[in-house]
Write a structure and sequence with these properties.
- It is a single chain.
- With 146 residues, this protein is α/β, with parallel strands linked by helices.
- It has one domain (4-119, 138-145): HUPs (Rossmann fold), CATH 3.40.50.620.
- The protein is 49% helix and 20% strand.
- It is built from five helices and five strands; from the N terminus they run βαβαβαβααβ.
- The chain has a five-stranded parallel sheet, with helices on both faces.
- Helix 1 (13-29) packs across helix 2.
- The chain is globular.
- The chain starts with a strand and ends with a strand.
- 33% of the residues are buried.
- The model has no long low-confidence stretch (mean pLDDT 88).
């Protein structure tokens, strides 16, 4: 039924639940699994010259978080019987929901899996959850895991 599943991951507990679900679906359907970590745009709001060290530190931390999130998904993929092949991807300088939807469209995914509560915290209350935005914007079905 599914041939390509895109998993939006940020390393949170909800994201890990979504990963377990996505890996199980990929195993059952023999689908390709792509794990996507989205790096939000650099939050520099100052006036004047930008601080390149601040940007570099931000990107280094984001790459480290992405690697940790991907490692968690890769471990689940390796534990599956049979193991599920996974492709790790990172989208940079884009809001999470938009990055997930754009990647799903560009890569031809036929299912998007996301967690219901991720890194958004207080911003989720003010701006709406990433999962809700993905559901609203995605051209393909979205499975939201608690």
């Amino acid at each position: 039924m599914f041939k390509h599943i895109l998993l939006g991951t940020d390393g949170s507990a909800a994201s890990e639940n979504a990963a377990a679900l996505a890996v199980g679906l990929a195993r059952t359907h023999g689908a390709k699994l792509t794990a996507l970590y989205v790096v939000d745009p650099y939050p520099y709001l100052g006036i004047g010259e930008t601080n390149p060290m601040g940007f570099q530190a931000y990107m280094a931390a984001a790459q480290q978080h992405a690697a940790q999130a991907h490692a968690k998904v890769a471990e689940l993929c390796e534990q599956a019987k049979p193991p599920v092949p996974m492709e790790a991807r990172v989208a940079e300088d884009v809001a999470a929901a938009r990055g997930i939807v754009e990647m799903a469209t560009r890569e031809g995914a036929d299912l998007v899996v996301v967690g219901s509560h991720g890194r958004a915290g207080v911003a989720r209350l003010m701006l709406g959850s990433v999962a809700a935005k993905v559901v609203a914007q995605s051209p393909v079905p979205v499975l939201v895991a608690r």
